Fold this sequence. Notes:
The protein contains nine helices and 17 strands. The chain is of the alpha/beta class. It folds into three domains: 2-89, Elongation Factor Tu (Ef-tu), domain 3, CATH 2.40.30; 100-210, 3-Layer(aba) Sandwich (Rossmann fold), CATH 3.40.50; 214-237 and 249-280, no CATH class.
Amino acid sequence: MFRIVKRKQLSDAIVLLEVEAPAIAQKAKPGEFVIVRQKENSERIPLTIADFSIERGTITIVIQEVGYSSALIAQMQEGDAFIDFVGPLGQPSEIKNYGTVLCVGGGVGVAPVYPIARALKEAGNRVISILGARSKDLIILEDEMRAVSDETFITTDDGSYGIKGFVTHAIQEVLDKGEKIDIIWAIGPMIMMKSVVNFTKPIGIKTIVSMNPIMVDGTGMCGACRLEVGGETKFACVDGPEFDGHQVDFDLAMKRAAFFKDKETEVYNIHKCQCKKEGE
């Protein structure tokens, strides 16, 4: 069993969990992920590692309540435990001194961006970070990102904090200041990552994205997480989760990610109704 030793509510629907998993913490690297299972018969959920501590023997994950399974995990408290917590899985980020690196996190995507930005800073890079969300209350890990960045920009869709607009508006602002960006990491919702790569491809800035498609076993056996990258089939669990964003077929990836959306929404709504009745 993998016990939760710390729980922090980052926003109404976003929760940070620090979990005892010493064997995984010993080997974890930025960019890798874990697959968790709350209890028997629960869905297996892939989550990119948001932090790790060899000293404490812990892995930190951040989860947003968007469906039935994520809602159950978000309700877990300190002292509760996962029945399965498997990892580290996937290929780690390629950390080296590139020069000036732009780290872009959208929504919950800020969580996996954080250890990458920290490692890039430790490797001697100038790190510029952009955090984006729909509104101010959905911006997470701002202090942590500022601590590992030379410069930080905030964007909100509604203008409630920072620059009004999308992360691409902040990228343009960075470029307008004369910054030469050597490489970009962009992690967040697929539509955000697609927008970033559509922005950077014409101007030739290499952009790494982290893909989180439907995933089952995490070992490349089931094929559920297949993507088209550079015209070839790749598996996010073993070939990724990071890929050259300019090579990813986002339209196909987004179509596959929506296969079970209606069913997921139906089950989630039933769960919320049950919770509401229990609270009455």
